[in-house]
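Tokens as discussed.
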């Protein structure tokens, strides 16, 4: 039994025993309750489930005789059936007699199923508690019991360009702040509202953020503020915050907004002293509001901030781009056109790169990896090769900040003119613009922003004067806190690397995910000549099994093209295991999987049939076609197949 399987089994077994303990016989006459020896009841940790007497924690008076445990039914009113988590044994808290056998469902029996660490806790605790690992992943009040926000005020603002998911982040900050009993304030219109004060800073309630989770943009507004860049503007902002008692700021924006917030934090004490000297605030306010906590969340569709895998709004913008590409492909195919799509991103090529990977674009221009000298010939050659494979359209994606190897801009109009002059293709330009910013946020952005908002409030509550300003980032699908200015510095280093023509450094600074996406796109979009391919005698068959799922065709395309690049002979199997047994196998080439990325379902065909009754015929087909390896894409049927050796 694997470690994970054993954990699941024992978790289930523990819950079963707890239910069984409800029906265990009443305690033997003379059984006594275990006394609590500590001065005060010890609060159980979230991983501890206390099965204790209702009077647990009460210390008897000295010399008082111990009372026998009353019968569970004595004078008691019948209760409704308890849930497994609430079920308690009738002899709960009773000490078994020496030598008496331990009954199933009793605390000692349950403790045998616990980990060594939990058993040690149970041994140290004088109370007869059972320590059961919690299976509830949802946070409860105990999780935040040491993080009270009483007496604290949190201000939340959005700054810079809007991004889908900002409202979800605002909602999470407000509700988490109220949950820990802190006051939460909206700061309307970003830093401009902070400088202007008045009605721009408003305390909010739980209901204030109802029905905004699915709304795009930002309901509290965003504006660029020149005044905040001056000390006079920051002085007004500090005065307005002190009047509301706000010493915790949650800033949702890009690197410029977060840099301004950090500068504001560094000047905070000096600003308060100056305000006190001018008589705008009381001198006691300097000590009362001695330091300002800053936590940032990156809201940007560009995904140009180093230190986080994804920024709020990026996934939604990517969805907009793919929707447009899918729509354009139909008209492009009808008229055999070439489309040049310009996407946002400023000096970051993430949106262009990932959308090119997702739609199988013929060519992509990004600032971090500019084309080499003579790119015009290379691009035209690739477009004509794809048309020669009977492809009726070409898609070229250009990042708005695209450059060549000499740091000269490459524009979408320039690319269009080149295709028309060199190849004579009917070519059109589509600039997506603010369509990428608008609309409802994707499910990913809603969840990401909500998780980041909760983590931001926790960071503010745990902040101290010595704690540096931090930014909440996503790393390995976990919300983490990173030093704000270190991330800002890395982000600025990317631009410096591109300005210095150190493009390999720029790609590495963007992060491992960006680098992997770039390498994957190059691998899947560039077909090597037969002379350049390695020679192997390895044959690989690809098949889909089980229910069809979105992305199956993209996986087949990647597998086929990578296999061919490595010199293997690739085979496609139709209709899963059943088709495999009937010999529905054929060799598949590079061009055969062109355009598969955006197709739903399973082009190869798939069936839910389990492999059991087909194993002998499948083995025969593998010998006939000399197949050395199988790549099976599907659900549970894949696992079932792996368990049956051929």
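Sequence:
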């Amino acid at each position: 039994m694997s470690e994970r399987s054993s954990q699941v089994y024992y978790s289930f077994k523990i819950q079963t025993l707890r239910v069984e303990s409800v029906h265990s016989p009443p305690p033997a006459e003379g059984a006594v309750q275990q006394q609590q020896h500590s001065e005060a009841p010890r609060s159980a940790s979230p991983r501890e489930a206390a099965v204790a007497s209702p009077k647990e924690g009460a210390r008897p008076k000295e010399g008082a005789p111990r009372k026998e445990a009353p019968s569970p039914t004595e004078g008691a009113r019948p209760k409704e059936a308890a849930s497994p988590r609430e079920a308690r044994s009738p002899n709960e808290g009773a000490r078994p007699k020496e030598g008496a056998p331990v009954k199933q469902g009793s605390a000692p029996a349950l403790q045998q199923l616990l980990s060594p660490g939990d058993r040690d806790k149970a041994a140290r605790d004088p109370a007869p508690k059972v320590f059961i690992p919690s299976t509830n992943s949802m946070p409860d009040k105990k999780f935040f019991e040491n993080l009270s926000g009483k007496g604290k005020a949190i201000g939340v603002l959005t700054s810079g360009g809007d991004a889908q998911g900002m409202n979800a982040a605002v909602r999470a900050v407000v509700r988490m702040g109220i949950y820990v009993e802190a006051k939460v304030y909206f700061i309307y219109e970003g830093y401009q509202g902070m400088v202007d004060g008045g009605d721009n800073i408003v305390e909010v309630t739980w209901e204030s953020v109802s029905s905004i989770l699915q709304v795009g943009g930002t309901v509290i507004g965003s504006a660029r503020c020149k005044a905040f860049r001056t000390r006079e503007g920051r002085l007004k902002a500090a005065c307005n915050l002190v009047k509301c008692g706000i010493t915790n700021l949650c800033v949702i924006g890009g690197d410029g907004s977060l840099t301004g917030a950090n500068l504001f934090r560094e000047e905070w004490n000096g600003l308060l002293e100056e305000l006190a000297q001018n008589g705008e605030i009381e001198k006691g306010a300097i000590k009362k509001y001695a330091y300002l906590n800053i936590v940032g969340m990156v809201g940007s569709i560009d995904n140009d901030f180093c230190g986080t895998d994804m920024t709020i709004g990026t996934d939604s913008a990517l969805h907009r781009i793919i929707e447009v590409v899918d729509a354009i492909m139909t008209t492009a195919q009808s008229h055999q056109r070439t489309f040049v799509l310009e996407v946002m991103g400023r000096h970051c090529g993430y949106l262009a790169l990932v959308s090119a990977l997702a739609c199988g674009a013929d060519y992509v221009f990004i600032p971090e990896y500019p084309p080499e000298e003579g790119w015009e010939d290379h691009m035209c050659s690739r477009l004509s090769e794809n048309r020669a494979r009977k492809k009726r359209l070409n898609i070229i994606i250009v990042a708005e900040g695209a450059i060549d190897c000499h740091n000269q801009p490459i524009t979408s109009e320039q690319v269009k003119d080149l295709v028309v002059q060199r190849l004579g293709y009917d070519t059109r330009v589509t600039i997506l613009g603010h369509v990428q910013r608008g609309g409802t946020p994707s499910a990913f952005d809603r969840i990401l922003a909500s998780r980041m908002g909760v983590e931001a409030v926790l960071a503010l509550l745990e902040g101290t004067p010595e704690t540096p300003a931090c930014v909440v980032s996503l790393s390995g699908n976990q919300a983490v806190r990173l030093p704000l200015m270190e991330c800002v510095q890395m982000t600025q280093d990317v631009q410096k690397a591109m300005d210095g023509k150190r493009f390999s450094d720029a790609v590495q600074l963007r992060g491992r995910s960006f680098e992997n996406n770039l390498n994957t796109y190059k691998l899947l979009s560039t077909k090597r000549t037969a002379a350049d391919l390695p020679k192997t005698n390895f044959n690989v068959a690809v098949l889909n099994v089980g229910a069809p799922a979105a992305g199956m065709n993209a996986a087949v395309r990647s597998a086929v093209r990578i296999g061919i690049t490595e010199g293997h002979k690739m085979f496609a199997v139709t209709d899963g295991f059943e088709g495999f047994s009937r010999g529905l196998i054929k060799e598949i080439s590079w061009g055969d999987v062109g355009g598969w990325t955006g197709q739903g379902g399973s082009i190869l065909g798939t069936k839910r049939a389990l492999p059991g009754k087909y194993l002998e015929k499948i083995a025969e087909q593998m010998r006939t076609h000399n197949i050395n390896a199988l790549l099976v894409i599907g659900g549970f049927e894949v696992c079932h197949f792996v368990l049956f050796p051929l």
